[in-house]
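User:
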Amino acid sequence: MRQTTLVSARDNSPLRIALWLWAGCGLAALLLVPALRESSATIGWLPFWLVVAPFMDLLLLDRVRLMALPRALLVRARQRRRPARQARRHIRHRRARLRPLLAAFLSR
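Assistant: Predicted structure:
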């Protein structure tokens, strides 16, 4: 059941397309028309209504997917870990072989 909710959250509904267009046109309008960067007496702060509000609505539409994202990242990180290896014994006789060679090298 969770799979269907994640897939339905990604669809390109007309509302989602309209919000992306609204945000894109609002951002372009803010960059091109300096008068839109001010506050209006009837509407309020125009950059909020032109850019911030559409992106907040998009976040609300994607809330199911956005809430599942941290869990998916944690599962991936857990799967990437190497499996635990069995502890091995340290070999001490390797030093015993190296001592005569080291002594011969240092005596030169």
